[in-house]
Specification:
The chain is α+β, with helices and mostly antiparallel strands. It has eleven helices and 35 strands. The strands form eight sheets. It has an eight-stranded parallel barrel. Strands 26, 28, 29, 30, 31, 34 and 35 form a seven-stranded mixed beta sheet that branches. A hairpin with a 2-residue loop joins strand 6 (226-229) and strand 7 (232-242). The longest helix has 17 residues, at 372-388. The two termini are 55 Å apart.
Length: 723
């Protein structure tokens, strides 16, 4: 900028915007750029947003650890310049732990911790492990049966899930009282609540294989089938029908519980297994129900995460989870400073009966099935209790706890999941924006995360980008995130792109500069009107302007072309590999467009941003020279602005006296009024101003539009007569 302009207090952005207005007067509708000599921008070394990465290859980590001291330090400095969090999904091999040391006294996780970044590893947070035979955490079901059997999740066939049965059902109850030594138990049938095709003995099944002879379950073939009545667990040896009831032959006081007498009508509870038929397709191979029936696949239980040591003997579910973290991570947690707890959410996901039919856990202490609120509270309690198992006075290091999955699944789940997110050290939004039907709900959740500076971990899970190309999914998710990003939010993380220990892709290294607006919800994000590809129709897409560039997001199935009044660099649609200098940007269906301002500094100056189209206003009523009857005069028209229309201003003059109308009905000096906008803040809107003259005469209306940054349109003058 010229020194005299800077001294006079003129902002560079003002100069660029003035330039854009001049250009649009002579160039609107022109598709060829006029600044071909402007050098293209270059991506930065650092990412524009806070990023995290998955590190799942022990060999990749070991190779880094084999570097010399200086080389290793330089490489770690580089990595921690790119990422604020490194995570491994391996539940049975901690890629950043001891296996990474490669003769070095410290692990890769510990090296990261000394540089102030997060190093986490996966752990089941509500279920036992899904490990297969031979893996580190195989056989956890047996450990839970021995150590905390009354912490195993249970459900009641009298009310297997919401909408089926009821809390007062007579199903799945003892038909008669039983004494301490009785081994034949008769249970009222749960048939009316059974899923289609279930046997009349549903949901009961006999133990199988070594589960009939041993003291614990070994796998999904050799498993102990059992029921729980009050605080006693009974192994089921045989199942038969008896009239309209079900007869169970049982071994009493199993898994170290105490045989006891039970009164008639006592509920007969069944274990919660993991492997529901309605789980996502990518989780089907994680099933651990008896229906799997394979010796190499571990039995999997749900856990009563609402139970702590205060619940009583053999019921400390959270203490058991803490013990498994200590056992699998090892001394000093192998250098990790964070634990990623899977399925720490409001949802009772993937929980099932022995055949995989979905069920809902039973809350013993409330005598009802779990709902999202009670499950939310349980997960928050669990996190707080786990923190007390680690840190000062425990002999274990301080640990951050990350909760998964907190991605909004719609308006009814957002507040529930956000409540957990606000209480943890990192809330994982798994497969963020993968489901196009949930785009609006997940965007609103992101606005809340950014506004409250919650530690949301946006997981763009490219490995499961079904129905998307990887580039499109990344671009759409990243562009959508930029609509919500706030400069002052410093706890979020974006990524999980299977990047490993490499520099983030170019997409994430364009420096868009500082925010120009701070929308708090989707309705406050400006929308711009673009032309549909292949037709004359138009579609509105969302836009967000930064000091050096702009993002356009098209959450529709129609590809569009968006015009700009002056030159911009298109970062997506390239020419010979370089950003294209253009005045129109194509944005695909369910995709995002990214542009940088065409400044002399190649996008590195503070700039004035870019805008897809000038601020304009038109008057549809009255038309020039129209004669209107005395009474209410409805002035109306449309306005548009690349940055969103903030206001339409109206002033009315008596053209004979040259005075201006005031809101109190008098006439005098120039006075402006504000019209009503149908869609304030959007790229295009209709406006209306109702005026009631008190006498016939010759009048004129002055109209001007203003965008969300204060930029004004040219004024429009419409003369009319009132008779």
């Amino acid at each position: 900028m010229h020194p005299r302009l800077r001294k006079a207090g003129v902002r560079p952005g003002t100069i660029l915007w003035a330039f854009v207005l001049v250009v649009c007067v002579v160039c609107q509708g022109t598709s060829e750029p006029s600044s071909a000599a402007v050098p293209p921008p270059a991506p930065s070394e650092r990412p524009f947003v806070r990023m995290w990465t998955e590190v799942n290859d022990p060999g990749e980590v070991a190779a880094l650890k084999r570097l010399s001291g200086a080389e290793s330090s330089a490489r770690l400095d580089e990595l921690t310049k790119w990422y604020v969090h490194f995570h491994s999904q391996g539940a049975n091999q901690l890629a950043m732990g001891d296996v990474s040391a490669s003769g070095d006294p410290t692990t890769f996780a510990a090296d990261l911790g000394t540089r102030g970044v997060m190093a986490s590893n996966y752990r089941n947070g509500s279920y036992v492990s899904q490990a297969k035979s031979g893996e580190l955490t195989f056989g956890e079901a047996a450990l839970l049966e021995v150590q905390q059997p009354l912490a195993i999740g249970t459900w009641w066939p009298g009310q297997p899930r919401a909408g089926t049965g009821s809390g007062t059902s007579t199903a799945a109850r003892l038909t008669v009282a039983i004494g301490v030594g009785q081994t034949e138990v008769v249970v009222s049938s749960a048939g009316p609540n059974a899923p289609a095709g279930a046997p009349p003995t549903w949901p009961y099944t006999a133990s199988r294989g070594r589960g009939l002879t041993g003291s614990t379950s070994e796998n999904t073939h050799d498993f102990v089938s059992w029921v729980r009545v009050d605080d006693e667990i009974m192994r089921v040896r045989a199942v038969a029908t008896t009239g309209t009831n079900v007869a169970l032959t049982v071994d009493r006081g199993f898994f170290g519980t105490v045989p006891a007498a039970h009164v008639q009508g006592s509920r007969v509870m069944s274990p919660v297994y993991i492997g529901s038929k309605d789980a996502a397709q990518w989780d089907t191979d994680l099933s651990g129900t008896p229906a799997v029936d394979r010796t190499g696949v571990g039995l999997r239980y749900g856990i009563k995460v609402w139970q702590t040591a205060a619940s009583g003997a053999k019921k400390d579910a959270v203490g058991w989870i803490a013990s498994r973290i200590k056992a699998t991570f090892g001394p000093n947690l192998q250098g990790h400073n964070a634990v990623w707890l899977d399925v720490t959410s409001c949802a009772q996901y993937n929980q099932a009966d022995p055949w995989g039919n979905p069920v809902t856990p039973w809350l013993d202490h409330k005598a009802t099935i779990a709902d999202s609120v009670s499950y939310r509270d349980a997960q928050i309690t669990k996190i707080g209790e786990l923190r007390r198992h680690f840190g000062p006075g425990t002999g274990w290091p301080n640990v951050s706890f990350l909760a998964n999955n907190l991605t909004s699944q719609g308006t009814n789940t957002t507040s529930c999941r956000n409540a957990i997110l606000s209480q943890v050290d990192g809330g994982v939004l798994e497969r963020w924006l993968w489901d196009r039907n949930l785009w609006t709900a997940q965007m609103e959740q992101s606005f809340q995360i950014q506004a409250n500076d919650w530690p949301g971990i946006y997981w763009v899970k490219t490995s499961q980008a079904d129905g998307w190309s990887t580039d499109q999914y990344e671009r759409f998710a990243y562009g959508s995130f930029l609509l919500t990003k706030r400069d002052e939010a410093v706890r979020y993380q974006f990524g999980g792109l299977n990047a490993g220990l490499v520099r983030p892709g170019e997409l994430y290294r364009w420096d868009f500069g500082s925010q120009k607006t701070k929308p708090a919800r989707l309705a406050e994000v400006p929308r711009v009107t673009c032309t549909n590809v292949g037709s004359t129709g138009t579609t509105q897409v969302y836009s967000r302007e930064f000091s050096k560039g702009m993002v356009l997001v098209n959450p529709t199935g129609t590809p569009v072309t968006c015009p700009f009044p002056s030159d911009v660099f298109d970062l997506v649609n390239r020419t010979a590999g370089s950003p294209t200098l253009t005045r129109s940007v194509r944005v695909g269906a369910w995709d995002a467009g990214l542009v940088m301002a065409a400044t002399s500094g190649g996008g590195d100056g503070d700039g004035g941003g870019v805008s897809p189209g000038p601020t304009t206003v038109s008057v549809a009523s009255p038309v020039p020279a129209q004669v209107v009857p005395l009474g209410q005069v409805d002035l109306a028209g449309t306005a548009s602005a690349g940055r969103g229309v903030a206001e339409v201003r109206v002033a009315i003059q008596d053209t004979v006296t040259r005075t201006w109308w005031k809101a109190n009905g008098t006439w005098g000096a120039w006075t402006r009024h504000t019209a009503t906008l149908q869609q304030p803040g959007q790229g295009s809107t209709t406006w209306r101003f109702a005026w009631r003259p008190t006498k016939p005469g010759s009048y004129g209306a002055w109209v001007r539009a203003v965008d969300t940054l204060g930029n004004q349109s040219s004024s429009v003058w419409v003369p009319f007569t009132v008779r």
